[in-house]
Design a protein that fits this description.
The structure is a homodimer of 441-residue chains. By secondary structure, the first copy, chain A, is α/β, with parallel strands linked by helices. Chain A has two domains: 138 residues, Alpha-Beta Complex (Aspartate Aminotransferase, domain 1), CATH 3.90.1150; 243 residues, Type I PLP-dependent aspartate aminotransferase-like (Major domain) (Aspartate Aminotransferase, domain 2, 3-Layer(aba) Sandwich), CATH 3.40.640. Chain A has 14 helices and 17 strands. In chain A, a hairpin with a 2-residue loop joins strand 16 and strand 17. In chain A, helix 4 runs parallel beside helix 11. The longest helix of chain A is centred in the first third of the chain and has 32 residues. Chain A is globular and about 80 Å long. Chain A starts with 9 loop residues before the first helix and ends with a helix. Chains A and B meet through helix 1, strand 1, helix 3, helix 4 and strand 4 of A and helix 1, strand 1, helix 3, helix 4 and strand 4 of B.
Chain lengths: 441, 441
């Protein structure tokens, strides 16, 4: 590497320093220009975009325009489950590109990858009325919620929905109806009056007066944007039992928990519950836009009357299916038990750090590799989270925020992460804690 | 080719016929198995899926599993504007795959292709308040409508919307609010009571009593699913003038008309009108899932209060952007004038056929290469459309239906189509007309 050679004269070393400095300035200029254009042309709905100048991704790392590498603890927000730019995904995409890409809207053409994908996913769900459950492909988790709500209302004949406090399901007019945070609905005239928000872990009404107008329950088993909060298994089982007694359909939003994120292919497996309708998204398209709804053939057939009651142009896109199929094939028993082990290891390591720096870190919460790093909110305001995050970034570790919890940082690394990388991240936490404690004094 | 050689003995010819027959049977079995799996695992919302066993696509052709080629007059429903599996798109995708794919949710990372794409699109729109218009990327036209409605309501502070009779905008809870056909809303409890449907070409109310609660007008300039019906230019200009006088925002849905489909990059150019908010989709992702909303910086900034009032995981995906950028770069003046010429030629050719077979074909309607083939509904019921369509398919021509008009077949070939291919399609129309007339007698 430039400048690393020994035995250079002082003059030569100075020349090399000048070259490096010049290079840095050139890149600075590029990045500055890009940032300006980004802010000018790409619509910004965040008041503090990261403006990270990404230049390359691979495995558990991202690189910026300066050539610095970063340990990726976000995986694009739970998307790149089998690693950034996984080789198998790349090959499958390239292979599909040589045959055909988009050829027709959903449901008209026989596309092999789409059929294989649906069959593979269906295998994770129990049969219903002697038929395998079916998969409808859409373009995002948000669109999966739209379809799930449409179907549940059509099947139940009721508009009313029970959703969860702190629940987050997306940004469209369907998802906003069941999303808890009022900030994300302000000014949009969202039709959420038929939605009742229940406190997870709290009392569950059982009387007809409550359930009479309700046709749907929707929930995440691990509440992602709330800070990776796992719901109580007993509470969820009780809720679903009561819902079933009142003939209410249950939608489980596995958009973030699916595809092995929590250590099983679906979080439902660990909770020992079965949804009537499951929403998928995030990791399922191997990094390309993807969403899906899984439910019984009987439920989907209701969308044939009137004919084509739901449809999508791109859903089940052959290139997306190729990429996603690689993800499914990659997620085998070994990877799932690896996720369980690494999840446990991450919890242990963070607990260790929290013990040494209790004023800064409280600990972590979550299941598998869907975890939140909880900062101490007794000692600090929410701006401290940004400070902590930035100190990690400077040391080459990429975390991210949670929409609904200002004191929790996101730890959702690629599932293929090693214990060594987890240790590396936790060493950075220690380093940051030391720095912050000393600067606080 | 097998069996095409001259001078074979009768026995040899018979043997070759047997081999061909055996091959056909094997493919038949494969296709049958695929069809069964398709119907079992992939959710069906159509009661008569085409089950077309696509095996390859290229330029203006698709191939089925038997090796038969089909002239593609659908382009995946107006998606593959620069041809199926266009070489430039494929190269751009592969190139991007070698650097990075999805790395973060929308708005956080500087991704070059995304910035270039937004800048290129912004160039087709006039500046507003001295700033270039901005682009927000989503995953489908449906999602673009969601965002457009959110923004328009936030800006106007009003829930009420004027939409068009026969208008179609998508299947989500946002799009359904402004979609005309009640069949697509039945049983879903769609909140469309604040939407007024206006008859295109009909009277336009001008009094405050009508507009007082209205904050938004939404329209397609060429109504796609209605059968490619272009709205009257004078009527549209009058509507927009009245809307402006009442401070009502105008959303133009260019999901199908955009990216050169009508012979200009946007249909707005031909109508000499400017939308406050434009929705894009279909062709913009080069065959990958894509949608976008274009509007002023001032309008988008309103979505920063509260912070992050809209967001998407996949929108602006680097691979989709790479593919879409190839589309934008490909659509130059020459292609646009080609579209105008070919559109004119298609109209002329269909008019010729209609003259000879007036009982079957009435003519065509539309702009550029977004046209509908109008069958004679005085003489036939809607089942005749399916018959006509199937006879074309048997002759190697792929058309498709319209959701809201049973007598119109879709003619939206790739924009690169040649006059020779258009002639070929029209010759097939003649052949089918002859066949149908003779079988009718």
């Amino acid at each position: 590497m430039i400048g690393s050679k020994k035995g250079l004269s002082e003059e030569e070393q100075k020349r090399i320093e000048r070259i490096k400095e010049r290079n840095r300035q050139i890149i600075d200029q590029h990045v500055q220009m890009q940032t300006e254009e980004f802010q000018s042309y790409v619509a910004q709905t965040s008041d503090h975009s990261l403006n990270f100048p990404v230049s390359k991704s691979d495995s558990v790392y991202l690189w910026d325009a300066y050539g610095n590498s970063f340990l990726d603890f976000t995986a694009g927000i739970g998307v790149n489950n089998i690693g950034n730019r996984n080789f198998v995904i790349m090959s499958k995409i390239k292979e599909q590109l040589d045959h055909y890409t988009h050829t027709m809207v959903y449901g008209e053409h026989l596309q092999l990858n789409q059929i294989e994908y649906a069959k593979a996913i269906s295998g994770y769900f129990p049969s219903r009325d002697d038929f395998p459950q079916q998969v409808f492909f859409v373009n995002s988790g948000n669109e999966a919620i739209d379809l799930a709500l449409k179907m549940s209302r059509k099947v139940s004949g009721k508009k009313g929905i029970v959703s969860m406090e702190r629940g987050f399901h997306g940004r469209g007019y369907g998802a906003m109806q069941v999303t808890w945070n009022d900030n994300y609905k302000k000014g949009f005239f969202v039709d959420d009056e038929a939605t009742v928000f229940l406190k997870p872990g709290g009392p569950i009404p059982d009387q007809y007066e409550f359930w009479g107008d309700i046709g749907t329950v929707i929930l995440e088993l691990v509440q992602g944007e709330a800070g990776c909060i796992p719901l109580s298994k007993i509470w969820v089982q009780k809720l679903l039992k009561i819902a079933k007694a009142h003939s209410v359909l249950v939608i489980i939003d596995e958009i973030q928990t699916g595809y092995g994120r929590t250590g099983t292919f679906l979080a439902q497996e660990q909770y020992e519950v079965e949804a009537d309708i499951t929403c998928l998204g995030k990791a399922g398209g191997g990094g390309l836009p993807f969403g899906a709804v899984v439910s019984s053939r009987t439920n989907f057939e209701l969308l044939q009357t009137p004919n084509l009651s739901h449809l999508t142009t791109f859903g089940g896109n052959p290139v997306v299916m190729a990429a996603g199929l690689a993800v499914i094939e990659y997620i085998q028993e070994e990877l799932l038990s690896h996720v369980q082990e690494m999840g446990k290891y991450l919890t242990e390591q963070v607990t260790e750090v929290a013990k040494s720096y209790p004023k800064i870190i409280k600990g972590s919460q979550g299941i598998g590799l869907m975890q939140g790093l909880i900062l101490n909110d007794d000692e600090h305001g929410p701006e401290f989270t940004e400070r902590f995050y930035k100190e990690c970034l400077m040391r080459g570790l990429l975390l991210h925020f949670k929409l609904n919890n200002p004191y929790v940082l996101r730890m959702t690394p690629p599932l293929i992460i090693s214990d060594r990388s987890i240790k590396e991240a936790c060493d950075i936490f220690v380093d940051v804690c030391m720095e912050l404690e000393s600067s606080d004094n």
